[in-house]
Amino acid sequence: MRFLDLANVPVVRIGEHELGPGATVAPMAGITNPPFRQLCRELGASLSTTELISCHALVYLHRKRSNRGRKLGAKILSLIEPYPGEQPLCVQIFGRDPQMMAEAARIAVGEGAEIIDLNFGCPARQVIKNGEGAGVALMRDPQTLTEIARQVVQAVEVPVTAKTRLGYSPSEKNAVDIARRLVDVGVQLLCIHGRTKDQGHSGPVDFDTLAEVVTAVSVPVIGNGGIRGRADAEEMLARTGCARVSIGQGAKGNPWIFREVVGGSIETSLSERLATCKRHLELYIDWIGESRAVLEMRKHAAWYLKGFDGAAVLRGRLGQAVDTKSFLALLDEVPVGESPPR
Ligand SMILES: Cc1cc2nc3c(=O)[nH]c(=O)nc-3n(C[C@H](O)[C@H](O)[C@H](O)COP(=O)(O)O)c2cc1C
Predict the structure, then answer these.
(1) Fewest C-beta atoms under 10 Å: which of 24, 28, 41, 52?
(2) Residue 122 appears among annotated catalytic residues
(3) Which residues, given as ranges, of the chain have pLDDT below 50?
(4) pTM of the entire structure?
(5) Same domain, yes or no, for 243 and 314?
(6) From ligand 1's centre to the CA of 248, what distance in Å?
(7) Tell me: the pLDDT tens digits for 94-113?
(8) CA torsion angle for 72, 77, 79, 82 (degrees, to 10)?
(9) Based on the domain organization, do 242 and 316 belong to the same domain?
(10) Ligand 1 centroid distance, CA of 310 (Å)
(11) What's 315's domain CATH number?
């Protein structure tokens, strides 16, 4: 197998934006918000994307000025907000109605989006069912999917990218056809999750079909699925010819994975993990305020703090913390200096 030098891959261009050599951060609802995107980008990620945002939500935001101050409006605004200095801001939208998707894309651009990413991969019930038929369900309806992309590309001046899977099920792997259609209507970059809808977010990644997509289209393709470290990233690049890889779950509690894939240190000491956990909390506080920050940080702390005596008990107690003071007091109990780097 030919391993590539991940730190020296060719530049990828999306419109006027140039991607550095690092892996991109795969969008994850409830995780890839501004604080997490900031940490990942600082550690070497080349691009990050907001979590998926409904086209209906964006249209609601724009319908009346007063909606911006309502609870739903404020939530939507917080999701499309960049972290300080984020560039480019890539906003992912989902929906089934081409006109509404085009309108949502225009609204997102008006709010600062510099790239619009179309979600054609989400398998969540509330996205693919309930009359919505969006996300990965659109891979079964290539005409509507193509029409969405066509109208969005026409509606905005910024580059449009798309994220798909390999297909809906093992017998419906139509990623090559979908990719060609998307590129034909002007989509400038594709991120392909190398699994089918039936696989959810785990299980083997089909490198061969990913490689077929790469060969079939003229735009950069980012490969996604199952990357847990540098060797996985090298393997995906070598076996598929993808321009970059995208990392999702492998970055939870481990934003250093972006440093690792471009040749940086693999090891993180417990004190580094603890310091990042505290910084993550500060970024959350700046973003959404103290009380929500602590609730959100419970899961991240549990992902960061592993591999030392008493870790499980401490994680359980962090899961009960309700304010910053008690949360930080618990973090002070982490026995830094006693554990070897992992
Ligand atoms: C909790 C969670 C939330 C996700 N949310 C999104 C999303 O909002 N948009 C999207 O395109 N993909 C979403 N995904 C899929 C990921 O972007 C990625 O394709 C998937 O996790 C496979 O990559 P991985 O094996 O590196 O995790 C989500 C995945 C998870 C686990």
Answers:
(1) 28
(2) yes
(3) 1-3
(4) 0.95
(5) no
(6) 6
(7) 999 999 999 999 999 999 99
(8) -170
(9) no
(10) 31
(11) 1.10.1200.80
